[in-house]
Amino acid sequence: SIIVKVYSIVRNSRIYLVRHRMGVCMKLTKMHGLGNDFILFSDSQGANKDYTDLAIRLCDRRTGIGADGLVIVVPSNTCDVRMRIINSDGSEAEMCGNGIRCFAKYAYEHGEITKDTFTIETLAGVMKPTLTIENGIVTQVTVDMGKPFFNSKDIPMNVTMDKVIDVDLDVNGETVAVSSVLLGVPHTEVFVKDITKAPVTTQGPILEKHDAFPSNTNVNYIEIVNDHHIKVRTWERGAGATLACGTGSCASAVMAHEKGLTGREVDVELYLGTLHISYLEDGTVLMTGPAEEVFETELPIE
Question: N or C terminus of the chain: which is more exposed, having fewer CB within 10 Å?
Fold first, then answer.
C-alpha cells in the first residue's frame, strides 16, 4: 500500500493535517473495504468518549479527510480488543462488516494484536476474525458474523411476525415489498430485476427512516444473478449510499437463501469487488473479503 503524509491545511474546518514540530499528534489511517472507507485510530482512553464532532469533521468529503465513518480501537474487558464504529453523521453503529475487516487488518499490522484469530467486542456482540497473512500483510479477512435474527421484535420492526419476508410498505404512495433481518444491525432487503435501476438514493433514505422501523434501518437492493451469485447496492443508515456494505452483503445473502433464491454459498458482487458469504446450516454467517490501507496522516491534538 502507498503511505502518504498529508501536509495541506484546511483552516475553515479546523482540521490541520500537518506534522507539528512540537506537540502531540493523533495518528490516523485511511482504509477501505471494497470502497466502504474509514478513518482508523487507536485510543486507549476511548471506551466512553463522544466522537460525534470528530466524525462529522473528519468524514466530510470536502473539508475533511472523507470517509463513511470512524473505526476506533479501544481496550476490552471481555475480548482481545474492542471496536467502536462512528458513522459520518456522528451516530454510533453496532457493527460494520467492511469496517471490521479493516479493523482486523489494522489491529494486526499495527501491533494491537499478534494472533491470526482473535475476538472483537462490538455493540452487536463478539465477532471472530481469521486473518490470511502473507509476508506480514493481511490479504483477506474471514469474520464469523454470528447468526441472523428474523423476528420483528428483534429487528425491530412495527409488525408482528416470526420472520419478516415480503411485507408491503407504503413509500410515498408506492407499494414496496420488503424483507428484514437483524444481522449486527437492522437490514431491509428489496429485490429488483436490474440493480442498475435500483432507487438507492431516492427510495433508500425514505425506507431508512420509515415509520415501520423504530431504530431506522439499512436498505439493500438485490439482483439475483443465479443460485450462487447476487448483486447488491446499499443505502446505509447514518452514512447514505456507500460503495459496499459488509453486514448488508451478509443480510442480503441470508435473505436470498431464505426466499429460496440461492444456496448457502453466495458471491456478493459490489461496485469494486466481491465478498464471499457462507450461510452455514447452524445459522452462522461467515464473511470473507479484503481490506486495504490507503494512507496514513497525523492530526495535532488541540
Answer: C
